[in-house]
Design goal:
Number of strands: 0
Organism: Glycomyces algeriensis
Protein name: TetR family transcriptional regulator
Shape: elongated
CATH architecture of the largest domain: Orthogonal Bundle
Distance between the termini: 60 Å
Number of helices: 9
Pfam family, one: TetR_N
Low-confidence stretches: 1-5
DNA-binding region: 35-54
Mean pLDDT: 90
Helix content: 55-70%
CATH topology of the largest domain: Tetracycline Repressor, domain 2
CATH class of the largest domain: Mainly Alpha
Domain HTH tetR-type: 14-72
Radius of gyration: 19 Å
């Protein structure tokens, strides 16, 4: 069976969807049990407009997860993971990802449903991350015997930890520099 393609939204409908998703992120981050009406109010739209775009609350959550995952993939792609020197790519990707994660904390915390578009996008992000790490390993930035899956998990943990505390309000480039330095060198004394 061929997947159906949706017609592109008109510009005003696209703005409404974007406003709904941005409002949903803010409202649900503050109150995960928030209603469709609360999301509509925060978006500055009538509840009927929200229901016209999304059949129910779960549809909003699904769209939110896909939108955030797509932005995350765009952030990674903007770092040129296949063409930029690995150190440059890792830094740029990290700064970009931090910006997305600061803005979409709730949505990116939603576990993607297996087989969903959000899960597919997250898998693409992971594949690009592994490709950059493989290039970094070939260039000598990572040890030749490093377990790259472990390295990816540690990197993700560092990104996640940077979202807490004082780092959440810091410049993403500054945090990315610290994070990448920690990832590549840890806290060992210089040799």
């Amino acid at each position: 069976m061929e997947p159906t393609t949706k017609r592109p939204l008109r510009a005003d409908a696209e703005r409404s969807v974007r406003a709904i998703l941005e409002a949903a992120e803010r409202v649900l981050a503050a109150d995960p049990g928030a209603s469709m009406e609360q999301i509509a109010t925060a978006a500055g739209l009538a509840r009927t407009t929200v229901h016209r775009r999304f059949a129910n609350r779960q549809a909003v959550l699904d769209a939110l997860a896909v939108s955030a995952a797509r932005q995350l993939l765009d952030a990674v792609d903007d770092g040129r993971p296949d063409t930029a020197p690995p150190l440059v790519a890792i830094h740029r990707i990290t700064a970009n990802v931090l910006q997305v994660k600061y803005s979409w904390t709730y949505a990116l915390g939603l576990p993607p449903e297996p087989g969903s578009e959000a899960a597919r996008l997250h898998a693409e992000v992971q594949a690009r991350c592994m490709a950059v790490f493989q290039r970094a390993q070939r260039d000598g930035l990572l040890s030749p015997d490093a377990d790259l899956d472990w390295a990816r998990r540690v990197y993700y943990a560092l990104v996640g930890e940077s979202l807490h505390g004082n780092d959440a309000n810091a410049d993403p480039d500054t945090i990315a520099a610290r994070l990448v330095d920690t990832f590549l060198h840890g806290f060992a004394a210089a040799r």
